[in-house]
# Entry
Amino acid sequence: MKPVRVGICGLGTVGSGTFNVLTQNGSQIARRAGRDVIIEQVGARRDNPACDTSHTNVTRDIFEVVRNPNVDVVVELIGGSTIAKDLVMEAIQNGKHVVTANKALIAVHGEEIFAAAKAAGVTVGYEAGVAGGIPVIKAIREGLAANKINWLAGIINGTGNFILTEMRDKGRDFDDVLQEAQALGYAEADPTFDVEGIDAAHKLTILSSIAYGIPLQFERCFTEGISKITREDVKYAEELGYRIKHLGVSARTPKGIDLRVHPTLIPEHNMIAKVDGVMNAVAVNGEAVGDTLFSGPGAGAGPTASAVIADIIDIARDIQVEALSFDRLDDVKVLSIEEVETCYYLRMEAFDKAGVLAKVASILSTKGINIEAIIQKEPEEGEQMVPVIMLTHKVLERTMNEAIAEIEALEEINGRITRIRVEHLN
Ligand code: HSE
# Structure
């Protein structure tokens, strides 16, 4: 059988990882693909000492790769969504299959790219864009194809999970851990994407599109990052029997699709709560199968290369990997965050005097908000303020916003209330 000829665009962490795994595991990959998979050309602005390209055709112009008549599959690993989009669209127009790890590109421009690919009769694989080495797109699309997916929730940003874990276990500072994540090749070129939840929102948009058959709607995904999480919140959450994780949550509800990324308290006995460091995990609930959990390394050269090459092998075996979903429910609306119901952790600073807690409880009870647990700390020596921490039962976010505004207006409450959503994942 004719070999499959691959053109790799980008030789950063993932590009060099893909080059190395393809080179080192060549014979095994050929057996699984049913034919040889050859690196025909690499397009990269500079060499990467992590891989030896001395026997490879390397060009500094990545567009040469998509115009190379010998290339069957273009592997886009340059990131970003401007040049990457032009590159991918030109590759498709030139009749080439595309494999990418670029979640921003798929989440924002996926519909246009898939339409072009369909018209050109080529496939677009993007398994590597979501949860690094975990084959979760395949799992939902193929392994769970019999199921109506009810909900999914996951830790889908390795950098964020690494930061929260190091802060909790070693008391390290946010910025210090972020720098280490950058050095280890986990973080995005712009690490704001990791810490402000944008990267996780890209991935959740893609997963939800496949799970519920809705169009990619990144702009409708509610996104809150981890940059405001304090060590105090991590500690209080633990006292209450919870862990704080940065979670992407989506669910099919009678009112529409719930789609959100934010820091979340999860009961510490839940398997996802135990997923630490750069590891990712995605829980998927299907109507027939019930609860499933997929976990593994969410970032880094090897894990991402593993997913990139799996898509290349699928293309070599002529398996369609681009089909967006197994059902299209285009008219299902995505809920705004105000329409979402969840439980909450609230932390406020209150004056240490009689009647304050009663006032706060009265506001919550007037709104029909049920308190599940409460902690009030002793004031520090010479301090007049005490931290008060509450867990509530499920309530509409709009109602919680009103309650928070009323509590913040009390003269006995100092500053803003910290609110973190709570999920029990069952
Ligand atoms: N910056 C991403 C993360 C890389 O930390 O998860 C993998 O998508």
